[in-house]
Amino acid sequence: MWILVHGLHNYRTNTGIDLPFKVTSIHRELDKNTSELTIILKSNFSANSSATKIVVCIPLSKKTSKVTILNVKGKAKYKRGEDAIFWNIKNMNGQREYQLVVSVAVMEESCRVKQANANISVSFKIEQAFSGIKIRYLRILEPQLNYSERDVIRWVRYQSRNGLYEVRCDHV
Q1: Which residues of 10-28 are buried (b: 16+ CB within 10 A; e: fewer)?
Q2: DSSP type of residue 53
Q3: Of 67, 115, 74, 109, whose CA–CA distance to 91 is shortest?
Q4: Average pLDDT by consecutive 10-residue portion of the chain (172 residues)?
Q5: Helix, strand, or coil here: 153?
Q6: Pick the CATH number of 21-129+159-167 from 3.80.10.10, 2.60.40.1170, 2.60.40.10, 2.20.25.10
Q7: What's phi and psi for 82, nearest 5 deg?
Q8: What torsion, rounded to 10 degrees, do the Cα atoms 17, 18, 21, 24 define?
Q9: What does the CA dihedral 119, 13, 129, 93 come to, rounded to 10 degrees?
Q10: How far is CA 100 from CA 5, 12, 44, 56, 97, in A?
Q11: Cβ atoms of residues 78 and 37 within 8 Å
Q12: Which DSSP string do the residues of 58-87 spell out, in sequence order?
């Protein structure tokens, strides 16, 4: 996770961070060529915060013949060339749960092999620092710029962006 403090400071950490989203995949066979796939996206951050520009990418089998979106919060679309469903959510508050339910048909029964290492990826933006870092004060020491205390605006914007965020699952 990278943190940018108004162009002055970046840092990355991999420890002590609770993941902001939990993704659950439920696969149910309807008949020999058709399955129902339910993806549950739960936000694990404060109810006072919200995430924006959320995109959940759900990979499907290359042998998928038909995808029907049954229920969705936001917008979802199957892209045949990429063999994936892209679920877009503009805004999601913390402590919420959204579901995407799709029916997936494959060309032939022999194609119904579960994909090992099928990773659902999630991209998002949140105005919060999940690492817990806080800026107590900021002092600018640039004598040649002639800054005075009243010229400096003391304001910090905390923002988290995902890098690579994938969830392993087994589905068609």
Answers
A1: eeeeeeeeeebbebebeee
A2: E
A3: 74
A4: 46 68 90 92 90 92 92 92 95 95 82 57 80 67 69 66 67 52
A5: coil
A6: 2.60.40.1170
A7: -105, 0
A8: 120
A9: 10
A10: 35, 32, 18, 10, 10
A11: no
A12: EE--TTEEEEEEEEESSEEEEEGGGTEEEE
Nearest alpha carbon to residue 101 among 21, 19, 171: 171
Length of the chain: 172
Q: What are phi and psi of 19, to 5 degrees?
A: -65, 135
Q: What is the DSSP secondary structure assignment for residue 95, as one 8-state letter?
A: T
CA distances from 99 to 13, 56, 89, 107 (A): 30, 11, 11, 26
- How far apart are alpha carbons 117 and 123 in whole angstroms? 19
Question: What is the domain partition of the chain in residue ranges?
Answer: 21-129+159-167
Model-level pTM greater than 0.85? no
Those residues with Cβ within 8 angstroms of residue 19's Cβ, 6 or more apart along the chain or in another chain: 44, 165
CB 16 within 8 A of CB 131: yes
